[in-house]
Amino acid sequence: MSTVRRSLWSLWLVWIVCLGLSIGGYALAASGLADKGMERLAQAWDVVSQAIKVTLATTLAGEDVLNDVQRTEFQFDYETVAASQTDQVMGTTGAAGDLVNSVKCVTSAASVGAITIKDGSGAAITLFNAQSVANDNLNKDNMNWVSVDGGWKLTTGTNTTCVVAGRFS
Questions:
Q1: Domain residues for 150?
Q2: What dihedral do alpha carbons 131, 134, 136, 141 form, nearest 10°?
Q3: SS3 for 116?
Q4: Residues 9 and 37 in one domain
Q5: pLDDT (tens digit, 9 = 90+) per residue, 20-53?
Q6: Are residues 21 and 62 in the same domain?
Q7: Residues 84, 146: one domain?
């Protein structure tokens, strides 16, 4: 878990402990447990990072302890688009709110046209200009574009095939 996330958990824990001590402070003070609780908090305080040291008994979903990161996996659909397609809709029908994450295209010959994408009936956005040589490295990654006008539509040039990944209706 990242240091920031652990710090947030630490602040939450301190808040809960202090709330519990203030609500039940009278009973705890009478029994002497309030002093022991505050003593434990003082022992757990890390002066360097200005945070309470907390150890979770189990890892959280997606937590990579070895690399100290939180992993996130995206679940995308993909759509293949053949060469010379015009306004092929991504998904079954396409709708506003659909997301395009990446477009990967391969050209198999020289002199291919541009590759464009449209948000519904909006204007075409050029992803890749026309190529004068075959190219197998036409990639647009981490786009994360959300449609507002309707389903995404891709147009491919001659001798160009594409795979589009995202969430489509």
A1: 77-167
A2: 0
A3: strand
A4: yes
A5: 544 444 444 445 555 666 666 666 777 777 777 7
A6: yes
A7: yes
